From TrEMBL:
Membrane topology: Multi-pass membrane protein
Similarity remark: Belongs to the ninjurin family.
Phylogenetic lineage: Eukaryota, Metazoa, Echinodermata, Eleutherozoa, Echinozoa
Principal location: membrane
GO biological process, one term: cell adhesion
Subcellular location as annotated: Membrane
GO cellular component, one term: membrane
Name of the protein in question: Ninjurin-1
């Protein structure tokens, strides 16, 4: 989880909320920024839960679950990145 990205999203959300519903792309930006923030929190929770367990003492099933969590976190980070690229494109419009 990147604190600077979370902070940037909070600033972007503040900017969009100040602009109000009459601004261009208001609903889309509001949805995408809040989605990005929520996904960042979810990724943080996934990573914390994943790293709280000892990898050496895991059974094969638990290792598979840890791998799935890792894949999920990676996929969500990719989605967060895509959301933020789109938000950055429209935030100045």
């Amino acid at each position: 989880m990147n604190i600077s990205l979370l902070s940037a999203n909070a600033c972007q959300l503040k900017l969009v909320l100040k602009a109000g519903p009459e601004s261009d792309f208001y609903q889309m930006l509001l949805y995408m920024i809040t989605s990005s923030i929520a996904l960042q929190i979810i990724v943080g929770l996934i990573l914390v839960s994943k790293y709280m367990v000892e990898v050496d003492g895991l059974t094969e099933g638990e290792k598979a679950t840890a791998l799935r969590l890792n894949s999920l976190a990676t996929s969500l980070v990719t989605l967060i990145t895509a959301l933020n690229v789109i938000v950055s494109t429209f935030i100045g419009s």
